[in-house]
Amino acid sequence: MSSSPSPQSSAHNHPKKPPKTDTPDGVIWLLGGILALLTVGLMVLPNVLFGLSPIWGLAATPLAIRAALPSIIIEVPAFKAIVLMDSITGAQRVLFQGWFRNIKLPWEMPQTYEGKRFVDLLMDLHETVPEKCPAKDSEVVVTYTITQRPRWETSEDIRKYISFKSAALLQESKTLVGRLITDYIASKDGEFLIENKTRVRNDLFTGNTSSAVELRCFEEKHGIDLEIDIEGIDRVASVQEVKDIVAKAESFNAAVEELKKKGMSEEAAQALVTRMLYPDTVQDFNFRGLEGMQSFFMGTGPGGAFPGGERQKKGKK
Question: Which segments of the chain are extended strands (E)?
């Protein structure tokens, strides 16, 4: 399984614009007080130190405020955000695009995210992932795409998002999605899965199914949105090869002989052909330990394509 993350647009319906910065009124009043003290100081100090009229200090006040503005007002680019941390209380505030109400107090420190000053609200991490899963009667490869994007409906979403590294978060997302897919696939027949790709996606990731609810809780906890799409569901190459051999064989024994040529033991070959030609006569198989089975299925693991209980005829224990 190998693919590299790349920026790509997500299909999630995000707000057209980020929310406005929710600067508490107390911060605005506090800033007003600081500016008032600065004005008074500029009027008093020249008179105390140099005997100048307070008018000179008053005239200098706009220049002083203009010089101080870059450290007081932060202009945030479009679709970006910056997180400020109060160095006294440790509380965090999020400033969104624009400059109005984007006030930074002297004791608030901007926080970087992955080495950058601003959080990119449009950053997508995108991967295509092949997931090998055992179905009820075969083994399939589910190829899905996953797109991860920061959620920015509220300031709290951003605070959650910056608590995690984006690449590590994507890996955790893939682990969860892979588990949800594997659990679902295990309860379905291969033919059903291959013919109902859209149904599989809806069952897994929409509505109020247990997997969809678990996914939404994960998104909420980490401040992200995930877009997942099932690109394809196919049998693993070895399983398809077996089906082709059995389909083309002129007789039961001919099919067994062809499978033996592929390195399968006679017992395993007979069991496989029986299962494919006469599925109603056999309930379940366990091929663990059958010579040649594991090597034939190219690393699909003990039991090959038919993991399960002991080999059992209908009506017999």
Answer: 76-86, 92-98, 108-111, 119-120, 125-134, 139-150, 224-235, 282-284, 312-313
pLDDT tens digits along 62-94: 776 667 677 788 889 999 999 999 999 999 999
Of 120, 149, 184, which residue sits at a domain end? 120
In DSSP notation, 253-315 reads HHHHHHHHHTT--HHHHHHHHHHHH-TTTEEE---TT-TTHHHHTTT--TTTT--SS--EETT
Distance separating alpha carbons of residues 106 and 63, to the nearest angstrom = 19
Please indicate, yes or no, if residue 13 is contained in any of the structural domains.
Answer: no
Tell whether 246 is covered by a domain.
yes
Residue 177 belongs to some domain of the structure: yes
43 and 91 assigned to the same domain: yes
Whole-prediction pTM = 0.63
Mean pLDDT over the full length of the chain: 78
Query: In whole angstroms, what is the distance from residue 268 CA to residue 25 CA?
Result: 76
Number of domains, the chain: 3
- DSSP track, 207-229: TT-HHHHHHHHHHHHHTEEEEEE
Nearest to 306 by CA among 132, 133, 137: 137
pLDDT tens-digit series, residues 239-281:
667 778 888 888 888 888 887 877 666 776 787 788 777 765 5
Query: How far apart are the C-alpha atoms of 98 and 159, rounded to whole Å?
Result: 19
